[in-house]
Amino acid sequence: MLHDVTSKLVSRFEEVRLGDAPTVGGKGANLGEMTSAGLPIPRGFVVTAESYLRAVAEAGVRQDLLERFRAAAREVDDPDTLASAAASLRETVAAIPVPGDVREAILEEYHRLGEGLPVAVRSSATSEDAEGTSFAGMHDTYNNVVGDDDVIRRVRDCWASLYGDRVISYRASQRMDEEPELAVVVQTQVASDRSGVMFTVDPSTGARDRLVIEAALGLGEVVVSGAVEPDTYIVAKDGPRLVSVRVGRQTHRLVPGAGGTVEREGLEPGEADARVLTDDEVLEVAELGLRVEAHYGEPQDTEWAYSGGRLWMLQSRPVTTLGGGPAPATTGAGAPPDGIAAPGTVLLRGLAAAPGRVSGRVRILQGPEEGGQLQAAEILVAPMTNPDWVPTMRRAAAVVTDGGGMTCHAAIVARELGVPAVVGARSATTVLRDGELVTVDGAKGEIIEGADAAPSAAPTAAAVVDASGPSAAPPSPLATKLYVNLAIAERATEVAALDVDGVGLLRAEFMITDALGGLHPREMLARGLREEFLRRMAGSLLQVTRAFGGRPVVYRTIDFRSNEFRGLEGGDRFEPQENNPMIGYRGAYRYVREPELFQLELELLARVREETPNLHVMLPFVRTRWELEACLELIDASPLGRQRGLRRWVMAEVPSIVYRIPEYAAMGIDGVSIGSNDLTQLMLGVDRDSEICAELFDESDAAVLDAIERIVGACRAAGITSSLCGQAPSNDPAFAEHLVRFGIDSISVNPDAAERTRRVVAAAERRILVESARRSMQH
Prior knowledge:
An 8-stranded mixed sheet has the order 14-21-20-16-17-18-19-15. The chain folds into 4 domains: 10-188, 2-Layer Sandwich (Dna Ligase, domain 1), CATH 3.30.1490; 194-318, 2-Layer Sandwich (D-amino Acid Aminotransferase, Chain A, domain 1); 346-449, 3-Layer(bba) Sandwich (Glucose Oxidase, domain 1); 481-775, TIM Barrel. The radius of gyration is 29 Å and the shape is globular. It has 779 residues and is an alpha/beta fold. It is 37% helix and 20% strand.
């Protein structure tokens, strides 16, 4: 039975149920609902939205606020105008008096909790924490508030936060133009010694068979705001049982201070690197999460805390962005739930390069020229796959290679095609046998004897979009542009349907091998097939540029590497034998030495831009100023260089660019795109294709991150655009957050990671905004 709280100024948690959200807000309604369910919720009450409306009405500003809010919502594409309008709205609310009856009702309930008791004062918008609109972290929360005057002041501060820049922008994106209302939760402060966040579903994959718990020392604000790197615990729901532990690192914790303050407390190295929760505590938190999910009947995003050995639930809301549930064991799907043992022996293990689980017959091929032997539903097993393998990989049910790392071409192409892949398996071509029936688990990096997954005739792109279901919320607008990496032209229409800003990396070398049918480009020229080259490549490029309409498509010119292109027909005539091809005859230097093919490519781009001017050019592997200068002269002398609106980009793969960005900008470069794969290789001295050294390849290494931060900063100082198109943001949310904090202008990821990356970037931007607001308030 729902309690009538519509006309009350305050309501105790025990009086509130989920259906009261229009009056007590999402947070208040959930706290009341969990209290009624007997869950361990700290005592408290809600200052209802009626109190807020009473206050603005008696101050004579209610209609004025509504009109100014709607006007501000129309300015979301103009950050400066929006910020000014939002600040004016907050000032208006902060100046209104709290009506006497509202003040009296708040203080009566505050005293009932205990005289002089520290409380948390937390915003609870009437549209917040609903299934489609979370408003997570957008409104203000205040910890360790003590005393009548401070409680009243913080309630009014929460009201003012109803008009934050981000809140107005979010409401506009959700098409919410009704009058904003806000309730405020006043809750007994839990002096947390450990706290954190728990999702009762894996938020990155949508898998509903596990929980994800993040934990840190002190108050949980450090986890929600992203101020520290928390521990991450993955828990399988069956049991429950602990699956994995990743110990984070904290530099500090927040603790209640004297006089109602919150203090930052530094941590000694031993505390900073120590695990936050024991195994038993992880399982206790997980069991509480299962109780909450069972009560609501759907996955929940929760906040919890330990205080003096007692576990509390502080908040719960529906998870607003999910993929599908646990994926079935078919091509392109995720791995089976942990705990479901695979029937059959694991024959080989390698690196988990592209997710999905599929069964099929083995076909061992030594080179791309044997590609015609691959039959439908067969699994391609090869020593290594380079760009010339693309036509064959397109038909494979899964890919297994002896060599390669997580960012090798086999891995990149497999992920884009939606084909499960295991690379670096070392002995796949000798251990496996033609015709043998196996199961490839691309998520776990395993090749298993026999069939325990559905066979597949061909890969599909069904998993490109992971925002899934009717309950998925419309995406939030991002300050950081989100682009996609693309190599297969025929997927352009499908990928262009994603909520992305364009193509940040169109890989020419993959398109070359796909469009030219395995012929080396210089072999085509030698055979007098120049016009055929232009015709075929223009057809592929136009598939992409037309699909993306007015959105930019950045084409990276052919980055020949001798070891990869020798396998093309005629390649042995034009490609040298090199001991270190990754740092050999490639990139801009090759264009200077062999201008004929580069000039042909520029003619191609000019031809395509005449029809679709959203196409732009990017030069790879630029080592020195003189190379770039020579290449830009070739561009200027070509038909492409005479076209208006062309943007010239360079890849930032060679560490020398850290020092040369001011020079490059002065030469007319419009943007820099960081190729984190190659940059990591050259910063750490490790070949990304080496399975032996795979553990050394770390794009999150401090030296690599420092170089990236310097590149982004130098681009900003020079007034040019910065982007990143490596694999790391697709795999690692923490890496993506680093980029946002560095101030990067855009991130380009694989299509299958676009929605996941959007959520990560949105969360990072939200945390940065909250941190900035809190710093402003402190000063």
